[in-house]
Each structure stands twice: as C-alpha cells, then as structure tokens.
Design goal:
The complex is a heterotrimer of chains A (about 120), B (about 750) and C (about 170).
Chain A: E1 2-6, H1 10-22, E2 26-30, H2 33-43, E3 47-51, H3 59-67, E4 77-81, H4 86-95, E5 99-102, H5 107-116
Parallel strand pairs in A: 1-2, 1-3, 3-4, 4-5
Helix pairs in contact in A: 2-3
Chain B: H1 3-30, H2 36-55, H3 59-76, H4 87-105, H5 114-128, H6 151-157, E1 192-198, H7 211-215, E2 223-229, E3 247-254, H8 258-265, E4 274-278, H9 282-290, H10 296-309, H11 312-321, H12 330-340, H13 349-357, H14 366-391, H15 395-423, E5 425-426, H16 428-431, H17 434-445, E6 449-454, E7 459-460, H18 462-483, H19 487-492, E8 499-508, E9 511-518, H20 525-534, H21 546-551, H22 574-583, E10 587-593, E11 597-605, E12 610-618, E13 621-626, E14 630-635, E15 641-643, E16 649-653, E17 656-662, H23 663-667, E18 677-682, E19 688-693, E20 695-703, E21 717-722, E22 728-732, H24 734-742, H25 749-755
Parallel strand pairs in B: 6-8, 13-22, 17-19
Antiparallel strand pairs in B: 1-3, 1-4, 2-3, 5-7, 8-9, 9-11, 10-11, 12-13, 12-20, 14-18, 15-16, 16-17, 18-19, 21-22
Helix pairs in contact in B: 1-2, 1-4, 2-3, 3-4, 3-5, 3-6, 4-5, 11-12, 14-15, 17-18, 18-22
Chain C: H1 2-13, E1 19-27, E2 30-35, E3 39-44, E4 58-64, E5 67-73, H2 74-77, E6 90-96, E7 99-105, E8 107-115, E9 119-121, E10 133-138, E11 143-147, H3 149-154, H4 157-168
Parallel strand pairs in C: 2-11, 5-7
Antiparallel strand pairs in C: 1-2, 1-8, 3-6, 4-5, 6-7, 9-10, 10-11
The chains are: A alpha/beta (about 120), B alpha+beta (about 750), C alpha+beta (about 170).
Chain lengths: ~120, ~750, ~170
C-alpha cells in the first residue's frame, strides 16, 4: 500500500516509515502538514498517517485541507496523537479523520490497523 | 548498527535540540515574554520528546514528560495564565528531562524526581478545583467518552499488563492487540453475549470510515450476527449518498470486556457513535440464532457490500448506475457539488509568520558533510598540484593555463568556504548548556545571578564547537565563584543583589571571540600577586603593572581559588584552560577592574579543519608552520648566532635573547640541510624562538589531517597535511617541537638516515 | 542418505576442515602471509614522509586518497636491513584493529587456501623477539610465515617513541 507518513519528530517519522516499509508498504515522508499536502498530490497515497501537533500546518488542518480537495476525499487518514482526550478526537472527527492511534504506537498494532485498510 | 539502534541515536541527538529549544522558550517566558508561541514551542518540544521516548521504551522519560506536558498544556489552553505559571519549576523540570534523556542514552538508571512530579501535579491540582475540569482527568471522564486504548498507560506500567482498572477507569484500560488464535465455535466457548450498536454520524463516509474497517477490529470469531438497520435512510429523492444513515447491530459472543470492546471500536468512531451493552436477554440470542440470521461468514460479505457503498464518489457512481427512479439521478450529483467544490486552502496569518520563522532546512549526517569536506580537501590539493605542474610549462602555454588555474583556485576556495559554512553551527549549541550551569551553581554558591547570552547565532565550524564547552564552563565557574559577590556583599557595595554574567559571541578578524563578563569584584591583585610570589612565579622585587598581575591568573599552578571550593577548585585552573585554548590556536586574556568586574576574552580560529600555513623546507623534507605561530622571518645571514655556555644557540631579536633551533636537527630531516632562513615563532607561553630552516616554499591554506587516526602522536607535530604533489607534510607544533628538542631522547640522526 | 548423514557428521565433527585464505608475499627470499580479509588493497611503492624519531621500521607516512597512514618496512621489522624501495616494490594496505597501515614488501606472490589444520604454531624462535610470527604454513615449495600484523604495527607509533626514549636514556 502507498502510505504517506507525516510527523515533525524526525525520529518518530523514521520509525514510522521503517515499521511500514518492513511490512512491505511504500512510504513517503513529510515533516508537517504543508509538506504533507504537496507530497499527497505527488505521491497519491492509499492511506495517510499523520501526527497532530506539528509546526507550520498541524494534523487537523492537514486533514481538513485534504478532505477539501477532490483527490483527498477517499483516502483514509489515521491521526496519531499523544493526547488521549475526547476533545481532540472530536476535533479530528469534524476535520474528517478516519481513525486515531495513540502515540507511541506499538508496531503490531499500527500494522494491524493499516492492514484493515488493505484491499 | 541496526536501524532501530541508529534511530535511537538520532532520537537522542534530536532530544538535545529539543531540550535546547525547551529551555530557551521557558527562559524567555520566565523573563516575561508572555508569547503564546513560546508556550506552544515549549509544549511541542516536550511533546516530541515524550513521543520518541515512548517509541524507544524510555519509560521514566515518558512518565516524567507526560506530567510535564500536561502542565504545559494548561498554559497552552489558557487554563493557567502565562503570567501565573511557575517557570522556575518548569526550568528545573527541563533540567530533569535532560538528566532522564542522558540516563536513557547511557543506559543508566534514571534518577526519579518525585519532588518535581509532585510540584507539577500541583499545577494540575489547582485546576481541578476550577469549574472546568481538564478532560484528561480520568475520574471526570464520562463513560462513553473513554479514549482510545491507552497505550501510554501500558508503557508507563512498563509492560503490556493491564493496570488495575479503576471502577470507571475506562481511560486506563489498554486495548491489547488482537489475540492471535481465538478458539473456534462461539457456542462452545466461554464468554457472554454482548450487543454493539453502531449509530455513526452522517459524515461517516466523508471521514473515509468504512464499516468493514470498524468491524474488522473485532475478532471475527466473536461476531455472531450483523444487522444493518436502514430505517433511518431518507427517501431516495432526498438522499445525499455521501451521508451515512445506516445503523448496525452486531451481536457478539465474546470474552472481551465491554471496556476492551470499547477500546477496539473507538479508534475510529466517536464515543457517542456506538454503544455496547449486554445482550438484553439470552432468548434474544436464541431468537436471532433461530431466524435466518447473518451467519459469521456473512459478516464479511456484508462488510464488502457496505464498503462498496462507502466512499462518496464511488457511491455516487453506484447510485447512478442502479435502476433507481429517474428523479434520483440528478440528486446525488447536486448533492455532491458542495463536497467537490474546493474551498481555498486554509492559510491563516499566523501560519505565514510561522513559515517565515522556520527556515527550510534539511538534516544531513555529519559523516556525509565530513566526506564532502574531505573531498573538497582533495580538490584543494589537486588544484595546488596543478599549479605546480603549470609552472614547468613553456611561457605562452603557461599564461593561458595560469588564468584558468587562478579561476579554479578562487572557485575551489569558495567551494571550501561554502562547505565549511555547511558544517558551521551556531555557538548556541554550547551556549544553551550554560543557563543550567549558572542555575545550579547559583544554588550551590548561594548567589543570585542573571545570565545574558548574546550572539548565540554566531557560527563556527563544528570542530571548534566541540572545543568551546570546556573553556566556557571554566570561565563561567570562575566568574561565579570568584568574580561575583554574595547578594549581601553586593548590597553593601551598593550593587544590585543579583549579579550579571554576560556571554557574548562575535566574529572578529576571521576568528570567533567570546567574552565572559561579570559585574563582580574583579581580580584581587594583591592576593594574586602574593600567591604568585609565594610560589616563586614572580620575583619578590619584580614590579608588575596591574594588567600584568591580572594575567597571572593563567599562570601554571596558580589558582586563586581556595582549593576547598567544590566549584572551581576541581584541580583545573585557568592555566589549563589557557593551555587548551592555545593548543587550538586560540588566545585567552583577562581584563579586570577592581570593584566593577572582570572580563575574560577567548579568541579561537573558526575551524580546526583547515589552517593557513607557511610551507618550509629543510633538507629533503617539507613542513608546515601555522601562520598563527609565525611572528617574522628573516635571513639567517643577517642575524649573528651566538652560543650560551652550555651550547644553546641564540640570536638577538628585538633586543631579546632568543633561542635558536635548527629544524632539520630537531625533526631529523633527511638530506643535507643548508639553513638560510630563521623563522621567529611564538610559543604558548608567549616566548619567542628562532627556527632555522633551509627555505620558505610558500604560504597556503592546508587541510588538517589526523596522524592519530592511523598511527599515533608524533612529537613535534600536531597533525599532517597533503601538499600539491600528493606527499604528506607534518604540521609543526612549536611547543611540542621545543619539548622534543629539550628532551634528550632523540634517536641519533645516523640511525634515522639508515631507516629512511 | 546414510552417506549424507555420514558426511554431515564428519564435517561438523571436524570444524578445522575450514580453510584460511592467505595472501602471500616476499621479502628477499622469505615468504610471509596474512589473511586475505585484512588486505584492503595492494599498490605500488610511493614516496613516504619520514616521521621524526619513529621506530626504524616505520618508513613514514603517505597519503592514500586523503587518508594519512604509516608505512612499515617489513624487511626492517624482521631485522634484515632496509628496503631500497623502487617502483617495483609493493605496499600492502591492511586493516589492523581500528587502523589502516601500509606494509612495504618486495612483491605479492599468491593467494592460497590453507586448511586451518595445516597451520602450525611458530617454533619458539629466539630471533622473533617481538612475536611477529603467528604461525607457519608448509606449502609444497615454500614455508609461509603468518604475520601477526598487530605486533608489527604495535612497535611503531607511540610505543616506538617511548622505546626510542628508553633506548636513548
């Protein structure tokens, strides 16, 4: 699957793509929402995994922007967050996020979630 | 190294940067910046540290950062006013995080800081009393708003084991990964009947949530039946197919608890979008079993169908192609219009400014830059080789080629400068360690100190950055210990109780100059001079100018620190600092004004990777003397050589008796020497020596190459370089050379000749 | 089937059957060898820059694509004089511990596979005071002395200087 991973913490980003690549996915990386959007247009991912808290353009804005473009309406967006609150989830939902995952993620759990979007 | 370990290292490096940012922002806030962006940046920093720490299983770090982050979040959300926030506490916490990072990095046990944690919790406690309780407080979380399976709790608990669940502690219930093998047949299995009702909001499809993905989160074996309730679906003519009106009832027979199920579903659905309840009564189950219910295997099929209905545009096509009433056809299209319309991208004003603040940058491995640097070094060598080749060409060819070579030289030099600039780092990397030092020292010494940093963005090569920390630490220690008075003493002297130390970096004349200034009592010249006399460093009858006395602070074996002081008296005096600085080709000096303060000035070259050198020849061998050491050169013929009683050759230079050393003899040069030139050079102690050589070949920038990497230390030389013809030349270290000359351990030259 | 098991059994019981691949080279009429894995490259002689007061067998340093490494004269190391280096002489560039070094020899002869069992310990030779020889391999035509490279190099560098200092004292 083609997956776009967005996180401003480079280490986590690398860990994310390492996990995904090891599972056989094709991964593009971006360090913030803005870069994420342009990668989204180039890479045309099947799935997006994005961090919430990022400089320049955060995950919520990214999700909103993504949903507002024709090509972004059908792509599942998984939001990674360390905040485990209902508020942030509601905000993510209003923006159009498809799923949440709490950071730090456990690789198997992430892959399990990703696998559900396969096919 | 395996990729994970490598990533972990990168993470720690990143932590250093994040910690720097965290501390800097907190410092700014402490000083009253009141800028919400500073709060955000601090929050982001600790947030990122926590995120990474969790990924790498640094439990203590996660636990501490988590609490710290929560406190900062109160500021971010405005629940605590910035003005009221305890930044001193936060700064101490950022120190604690730094310690935890260091512990994790070195695999050492972490020092627990219950005191700080308690103080941080306090920030939250005060809030709890306020009408609007933080949503994160588990006790207040209404059932049904429980969050996604709390992995963090798992990490904090140090294992995947479920923490003892509080009665209503949904938040703490971890969502375990799906069990690998669940025994088959539902009726034969233990467990109980539960009913999951999914009533998604209408925008489900627009969120790209496919019902099958949601149902996929449940163990397939546990699903007894799935029913789709279409009763809410509006009449086709008013149906917007991008809306979801379906409701699902899932009958389950499962061993999972309600909470566990909850954790599995709420990764995607909002708390109010689903409900889990015990199946009303067993007969219900029997009933569903009796009627033509949807068997296990059908669940997937149903999901597949739902999936097709799922995402909007496909759904639209589907709907259009279906034998639907004609009137319905235009409807979905019309409905789809608002969705397809692309509203302008949100780009609020603060985003713009954020973009300006954040310069575009790439992260490059230092190793790669070093390789690039090496390559540029090679080009410099090749280029000087070309210059030598060209010299032997006939004049007409030479003239043309020389022009090109000249351009090449300029471009090479420029290339080198640019690569050096890439390696350059702001001194901030070192400066930002100092506030902590000052805070801790202030506490130990009972002094009140304000540290002012200036010119943190001044850039120097990384080779110098690495060498700055030690001298700066010593200079600051010295200022805080000896320079600054206690608050009471200061008050008595009519000074503010709080002393000020300024750390200022700037570029000056191709060097980096760092000044450490304090407004303390200045150097106690009487005491210093007395001590120097008692140690025999200064003759009793010598008359020294005040400035000369001040410089005694750098004299070997002389520290004004009463050695008992545990701050500066760690056996490392300013003399060691001076020696280290000078070995890097730098200088350190002090200016003191009694009663007003003291200023240490450190000047270092911008890099250790290249140096400006004078290439000289002695016999068959060539050497490089750093230009920084050279004072003057002159013909030996014009300088009479005299001998001291024990045979040491000397010359008179500017009226001073200056020892003369023959380089070929000291270094054991090959071939016959014919000394024509004397180079007057300066030693670390500031003495002058004459070095007799055969010839000055030229002056050029040379790339410094290590001898230690593949060999070992070479007496008389600090390093080596590669000259234009590809041969290696030693870079002379005047002091080391003099030590070599002084020690009688030179192998007789004849032996060496044989060895060559 | 049985045979296979037998073979398997045989080979696992005889791990010494493994071979060492050795590069052999000549200094005068003597043959030396080192494991091929230690050899980084083999290059023609190039002039070195002498180091002050180094051990006699340290020929000096040279520039190998921007890296500076020391060259050791094997002839001097074994105490049979100094190599009069010419263009036909060879520097074997080796990796020893964490360092790269050059070994000045007359010529490189061959690469041979030697069963580990064929390596015998070096006889206790009085002359090999620095323990340069790690073992001997008997080939049909030659006796190959396997070099303990670390020992060859250990006598250069800093140690040489302290040694020289001691000698002079």
């Amino acid at each position: 699957m083609k997956i776009l991973a967005i996180d401003d913490t480079k280490t986590l980003l690398s860990l994310l793509s390492l996990t995904l690549r090891n599972a056989g996915h094709e991964v593009a990386e971006a360090e913030n929402g803005e870069e994420g959007l342009s990668k989204f247009d180039q890479f045309k991912p099947d799935l997006v995994i994005t961090d919430l808290n990022m400089p320049i353009m955060d995950g919520i804005e990214f999700t909103r922007a993504c949903r507002s473009r024709p090509t972004g309406q059908n792509t599942p967006i998984i939001v990674l967050t360390t905040e485990n609150g209902a508020e942030i989830k509601a905000e993510g939902r209003r923006a159009g996020a498809s799923a949440w995952m709490v950071k730090p993620f456990e690789p198997n759990m992430l892959l399990g979630l990703v696998a559900r979007y396969q096919n | 190294m395996d990729p994970l370990a490598e990533l972990k290292q990168t993470f720690f490096q990143e932590c250093d940067e994040l910690l720097g940012a965290l501390e800097q922002k907190l410092q700014a806030l402490d000083e009253g910046s009141n800028d919400p962006e500073d709060v955000n940046a601090a929050f982001r920093a600790i947030h990122s540290i926590k995120g990474g720490a969790g990924a790498f299983g640094c439990t203590e770090l996660v636990a501490f950062s988590h609490v710290f982050e929560a406190s900062l979040d109160h500021l971010r959300s405005g629940r605590v006013a910035i003005e009221d926030a305890p930044f001193t506490l936060f700064l101490r916490c950022s120190d604690a995080v730094a310690d935890l990072v260091a512990a994790a990095r070195n695999d050492e046990p972490a020092v627990e800081r219950p005191d700080l944690l308690a103080a941080l919790e306090q920030v939250g406690q005060e809030l709890q009393a306020e009408p609007r309780a933080p949503a994160a407080a588990p006790a207040d979380a209404p059932p049904g708003v429980a969050a996604l399976g709390n992995l963090l709790a798992m990490v904090e608990a140090g294992s995947g084991a479920a923490p003892a669940a509080a009665d209503d502690g949904w938040d703490d219930e971890p969502a375990g990964p799906a069990p690998a093998d669940v025994p088959a047949a539902a009726e034969a299995r233990p467990g109980r009947a539960l009913r999951l009702r999914i009533a998604p909001e209408a925008d489900l499809f627009r969120r790209v949530i496919e019902p099958r993905v949601v149902l996929g989160a449940l163990p397939a074996e546990d699903i007894v039946a799935v029913r789709c309730d279409l009763s809410q679906v509006p009449p086709l003519e008013s149906l917007d197919v991008t809306d979801c009106w379906m409701r699902f009832d899932v009958d389950l027979h499962t061993e999972l608890s309600v909470e566990e199920l909850h954790g599995r579903i709420d990764f995607s659905l909002g708390g109010e979008e689903f409900e889990i309840a015990p199946a009303e009564d067993e007969p219900d189950l029997a009933e569903t079993a009796a009627e033509p219910e949807v068997p296990n295997s059908v669940a997937a099929d149903l999901s597949a169908i739902l999936a097709k209905l799922g995402p909007a545009p496909e759904a639209r096509d589907e709907a259009a192609s279906q034998p639907a009433p004609a009137a319905a056809a235009p409807e979905p299209v019309a409905a789809a219009v608002p969705v397809l319309r692309t509203p302008p991208l949100r780009a609020p004003v603060n985003d713009q400014s954020a973009r300006q603040r954040q310069p575009v940058s790439v992260r490059v491995d230092l190793e790669r830059i070093d390789k690039l640097m090496n390559l540029v070094g090679e080009i410099v060598i090749t280029q000087s080789m070309l210059v030598e080749c060209v010299r032997s060409l006939p004049y007409d060819v030479y003239a043309k080629t020389a022009e090109g070579i000249l351009t090449l030289s300029r471009q090479t030099r420029e290339l080198q400068d640019h690569v050096m600039a890439v390696r350059a780092q702001p001194v901030k990397a070192v400066f930002q360690r100092m506030p902590r030092l000052v805070r801790e020292l202030a506490q130990t010494l009972g002094k009140e100190v304000r540290l002012v940093l200036e010119g943190e963005n001044t850039e120097v090569d990384k080779t110098i950055i690495e060498e700055l920390a030690d001298p700066l630490t010593h200079m600051i220690r010295n200022s805080m210990d000896h320079g600054l008075e206690t608050p009471d003493e200061r008050a008595e002297a009519g000074k503010p109780r709080e002393g000020t130390i300024r750390l200022i970096a700037e570029h000056r004349a191709g060097r980096i100059v760092i000044a450490v200034t304090d407004d303390g009592r200045g150097i106690n010249r009487e005491k210093l001079l007395a001590k120097a006399r008692s140690r025999g460093l200064v003759d009793d009858d010598a008359r020294l100018a005040p400035e000369e006395i001040d410089q005694l602070i750098f004299a070997a074996g002389l520290s004004t620190a009463e050695q008992v002081s545990d701050v500066s008296g760690r056996g490392v005096g300013m003399d060691v600092v001076r020696r280290n600085v000078e070995s890097l080709g730098g200088r350190i000096s002090v200016d003191s004004e009694p009663g007003r303060g003291c200023k240490f000035t450190l000047a270092l070259p911008l890099t250790l990777a290249v140096l400006e050198g004078m290439v000289i020849r002695c016999g068959n061998d060539r050497y490089v003397i750093p230009i920084a050491s050279v004072i003057e050169t002159q013909h030996l013929a014009s300088t009479p050589i005299e001998r001291l009683p024990f045979g040491q050759e000397v010359l008179r230079w500017r009226g001073e008796v200056t020892p003369l050393y023959r380089l070929g003899e000291v270094m054991g040069s090959m071939g016959t020497t014919d000394e024509n030139i004397v180079i007057i050079a300066e030693t670390e102690r500031g003495n002058n020596v004459g070095i007799a050589v055969d010839e000055i070949v030229g002056q050029q920038q040379v790339v410094v190459k290590s001898l230690e990497a593949n060999y070992g230390t070479v007496n008389g030389a600090s390093a080596a370089t590669i000259l234009g013809d590809g041969l290696v030349a030693l870079i002379l270290d005047i002091d080391s050379m003099l030590r070599l000359a002084a020690s009688g351990d030179r192998v007789p030259q004849s032996d060496l000749k044989m060895a060559g | 089937m049985t045979l296979q098991i037998g073979e398997k059994h045989f080979s696992s019981a005889q791990p010494e059957a493994a071979a060492r691949r050795i590069v052999t080279f000549k200094v005068g009429d003597r043959t030396f060898g080192i494991d091929v894995g230690m050899v980084r490259e083999i290059k023609g002689w190039q002039a070195t820059t002498p180091l002050p007061h180094a051990a006699p067998h340290v020929r000096g340093v040279l520039n190998l694509r921007g890296v500076i490494l020391a060259v050791y004269d094997l002839r001097t190391a074994i105490g049979i004089g100094v190599t009069e280096a010419t263009a036909t002489h060879v520097i074997v560039v080796v990796d020893v511990e964490d360092k790269t070094a050059g070994l000045l020899v007359d010529s490189v002869s061959d690469i041979v596979d030697v069963p580990v069992s064929a390596v015998r310990p070096a006889p206790d030779l009085e002359r090999d005071e620095h323990g340069l020889i790690e073992g001997l391999v008997l080939l049909d035509t030659d006796i190959v002395a396997l070099l303990d490279l670390a020992a060859v190099i250990r006598d250069g560098g800093v140690d040489a200087q302290t040694r020289a200092a001691r000698a002079a004292a």
